[in-house]
Amino acid sequence: MANTKKRSDCPISCALDIWGDKWSLLIIRDLIFFKERTYSDFLKSEEKIATNILATRLQMLEENGIISKLDHPVSKAKVLYKLTPKGIDLLPLMIEINVWSDKYLTIPAQQRAILKEIKKDKEAYIKMKIKELRDV
Asked: How many domains does the chain have?
């Protein structure tokens, strides 16, 4: 794990030091729910992350063991990003953020469709999604 200066020993504070900025969670979201895997894929998200911020966040997530890099099977100029087991363990948190957002905010139809599937059987969905993410 990268040497991140801790604000306190509070577990929430320590976790936020690793993935608590809005861009890191959006990268994790894209890897979990939208199968985005390359640098250019992340740049295409509707939030329009700047290239320098994207590069910094990818590096920080990799240094903290949340994602890893893989060789692209077609292009030597590209890299594929994949969630590590530590990153995959963020799935339940990401689901709960979506559930909370569905309750209090207006969310896009694509996310609403995912939530409908999740709400049928959350535990089964999590098991299926973890298997899918590990097999990537």
From this structure: 1
The pLDDT of residue 6 is above 80? no
Q: Give 110's contacts (C-beta < 8 A, 6+ positions apart).
A: none
Q: Which domain holds residue 114?
A: 11-134
Write the pLDDT tens digit of every residue in 34-46.
888 999 999 999 9
What is the pTM (predicted TM-score) of this model?
Answer: 0.88
CATH number of the CATH domain containing 85: 1.10.10.10
3 within domain boundaries? no
